[in-house]
Amino acid sequence: MLNSLSGRFLILTVLFVMLAEVMIFVPSVSRFRQDYLLDRLERAQIASLALLADDMLDPQLEQELLENAGVYNVVLRRNEMRQLVLSSPIPQPISDTYDLRDPLASELIRDALWRLMTSDDQIIRVIGNPTRDAGLLIEVTMDAMPLRAAMLDYGLRILLLSALISALTASLLFFAVRRMMVTPIRNVVAHMQTYAEAPEDARRIITPSATVRELRDAEVALQAMQTDLTSALRQKERLAQLGGAVAKVSHDLRNILTTAQLFADTMEASDDPRVKRSAPKLVGSISRAVSLCEGTLAFGKAEEPPPKLGRHVLHALVEDTLDNERIAMGESRAELVNDVPPGLVLRCDADQLLRVVGNLVRNARQAIDATGKAGAVHVEAAETETDWRIVVRDTGPGLPPKARDHLFTPFQGSFRKGGIGLGLVIAAELVRGHGGTLTLVSSDAGGTAFAIDLPKGPARPRATGD
């Protein structure tokens, strides 16, 4: 129970109410002490006035008046003259004197706390103003132990009452919070557990029912998330089934096309002019079909390992990538330029970054070659306090609208003849593995630019509001 929300709320409520009662207790006890002393002064004044009215009182009656007032001596100052009205032997010297004529609140609290902590039998002097202007001042001496005993009794009664009020208040708040917050939260948790058992079942999606605004907002957000997740799971299941079917078809089709490619290669040796003219086109078509099947199978089985991050000189990595591309480009008229600053060092997986930059450079070079004109591919880089940015920019014709709309969609983002639209998809996946993003910066008649943004720091959880 102590680990539950309602149990901890109960404990905190008791503690806070008790703290508030303690804050009230100290001034209450000091006020009780002041009233106690003023009461003794008033009693002493009544006894002294009785003696003044008849100065022939018997000593026994005088002692009875002192005992009734709870004091040893009474001094009354009237008409600028200090007069010892009532007196009796004092068992020990006076230890403290307290003036109640115009006390400060801090002094009253300090003296009250001191009296509670002092257990010695002491005699104190108390000075105050007589009631009803019956003199200039009145002064009494008295035993401090009865005062301390009365203060302790009063304090215990205050503490018991405070404990009772705390328990009652905490109980009421406990049941109120349990009904208004804990129970709805448990219902939400129960819905989440039920949904987790079969997330494809739309009947298990939560229906918002809470009356508390914040809880209802949470239920609405959970309902939207569960609805989207159920739809995504259904779509994923259909895509998985479709992917399995495509993989099987692609596997069988690849075997068939491989056989057809062998026959097409044989046809190229034929002496028939019509066969010679048709054979290259047939071979090219079959080669593209085989490439599509192999790419589909590779994408379906691809499981990229997490990047092995290390610090690398980016200029050298880019230069290796461009060298590999220069070897493969043949008679291409595209110029490959490394504009990366020589001293730039970044944290990445070198092999994966080579694949990403290589894919972007190859696409840019092929786009330039498709125009039949000369062009250039520039690889640039810069860094800020938070991230590194690598930009691959070309002077090609730009991407067609269809390619821009489906740039990172498998099998749909290809912009060249014979492409299967997987290069950018895999490149974006590799960049995401580094915690970064691959984005299209611009694409028009003047060329195309892609940007790779890699963060410098570790991933941080998203902040939440209170």
Automatic annotation (TrEMBL):
Keywords: Coiled coil, Kinase, Membrane, Phosphoprotein, Transferase, Transmembrane, Transmembrane helix. InterPro entries: HATPase_C_sf, HATPase_dom, His_kinase_dom, HisK_dim/P_dom, HisK_dim/P_sf, Sig_transdc_His_kin-like_C, TCS_sensor_his_kinase. It catalyses: ATP + protein L-histidine = ADP + protein N-phospho-L-histidine. It holds the Pfam family HisKA. SUPFAM superfamilies: ATPase domain of HSP90 chaperone/DNA topoisomerase II/histidine kinase (SSF55874), Homodimeric domain of signal transducing histidine kinase (SSF47384). Residues 248-458 form the Histidine kinase domain. Its EC number is 2.7.13.3. The keyword Metal-binding does not apply. It comes from the Bacteria. It is found in: Membrane. Signal peptide: none annotated. GO terms for molecular function: phosphorelay sensor kinase activity. It is an enzyme of class 2 (transferase). The chain crosses the membrane at residues 6-26, 154-177. One of its GO terms (cellular component) is plasma membrane. Residues 215-242 form a coiled coil. This is histidine kinase. It comes from Meridianimarinicoccus roseus.
